[in-house]
Amino acid sequence: MKYYSGLASFKGVPVSDMKRSMKVLIGLALSFSLFPFAFYLGIACAHAQGYPVKPIRLIVPLAPGGGNDTMARLIGQKIQGPLGQSLVIENRPGAGGLLGADVASKAPPDGYTLLLGNAAQLSIIPNIQPKMPYSPTRDFAPVSLIASAPLLVVVHPSMPVGSVKQLVALARARPDELNFASNGLGSTTHYATELFKMMTRTRMTHVPYKGLSLAMVDLVSGRVDLMFSSAVAMLPHVKDGKMRAIAMTGAKRSQAIPDVPTVAESGVPDYEAGSWYGVLAPAGTPRAIIDRLNREIVAAVKSKEAQDRLIGEAVIPIGSTPEEFSIYIAKELERAARVIKESGAKFN
After folding, report:
1. H/E element, 207
2. What is the mean pLDDT of the segment spanning 227-232?
3. Is-contact 244 155, C-beta < 8 A?
4. d(C-alpha 181, C-alpha 219), whole Å
5. Do 249 and 273 touch, CB atoms closer than 8 A?
6. DSSP letter at 262?
7. CA–CA separation, 243 vs 158, rounded Å?
8. What is the pLDDT of residue 23?
9. With a threshold of 0.85, does the pTM exceed it?
10. What is the rounded distance in angstroms from the CA atom of residue 79 to the CA atom of residue 33?
């Protein structure tokens, strides 16, 4: 009978017995080393299977009444039935949306705290804020891009312009004399106008406000000349004759106001700007929970009720996969960085 004699401590031990013992030892070692991961995975899967078992909090990082709030409530009403739990909207305004987004990024990754994020918190402000409290790409798990919202370019009726070409001509003839309003430094309205100035080589003076309502008051009264802003907010004033709409900032005309041309077709090729909205969870949220939320949100966006309402308010419904939303955020970050750098504008 042959015996292994390569190591003194194993003399006299049959090769077959030694191999069996080594396999057992290796198996035990692997079991213990993988135990924490398996334990966590088991808890995560069990948690995801029973999700949700309590109300879900959706943080809107801006004040009530704007497009973000409207979007959150529309989606919330549609998904709480299928989820079997209520969805509580929590407005956490401050610092252009940074405060609310920061709270959401640091919440437990259990699917019970979500963020209704937009272009400002996820692409524009991260490019102008030197010390961000969160990373838009590392601290969030994208769930779905809900919709994009082109802006409406409006001027006060006293302005002698009825088109983008006339606005550009007037701005070039009177550099720095025309005043444009925005929701605030670093807002989507500010960003869209700076992009317009850069692409048309015009100079206009920025007048930032702390919110849309104050800006609209001064635009209606004629204290400021023009604004790139939400179609939902501006259309009632356009219909009342208090403002004049000259263009939309989207890639194509809106079904809600088909007679209003885009900036691009009005003499500024490739111009496109606006806001967009999406739902995100804290990074580390189990994939099963992300998939469940995505399924219900996309179904809500695709519903006839949501489609009719969004399109009627000049908003473009989307409803994406988590991966598509992740890629979209990365591209928007890069685009905003380029615009901010090349425009030379002061965003902070």
Report:
1. strand 205-208
2. 90
3. yes
4. 8
5. yes
6. B
7. 9
8. 55
9. no
10. 40
Report the sign of the C-alpha dihedral through residues 335, 339, 342, 345, in that order.
negative
Percent of the chain, pLDDT > 70? 85
- 17 burial (CB, 10 Å; 0-12 / 13-18 / 19+) is exposed
Structure tokens, 152: 């409406």
Distances (CA, A) of 270 to 40, 167, 217, 231: 48, 18, 31, 20
pLDDT of 48: 60
DSSP 307-321: HHHHHHTT-EE----
Alpha carbon separation from 119 to 162, 186, 242, 346 (Å, rounded): 29, 10, 28, 18
Burial of residue 29 (number of CB atoms within 10 Å: 0-12, 13-18, 19+) = exposed
With CA atoms as reference, report the closest residue to 70 among 325, 306, 332, 303.
306
CB distance 114 to 142 below 8 Å: no
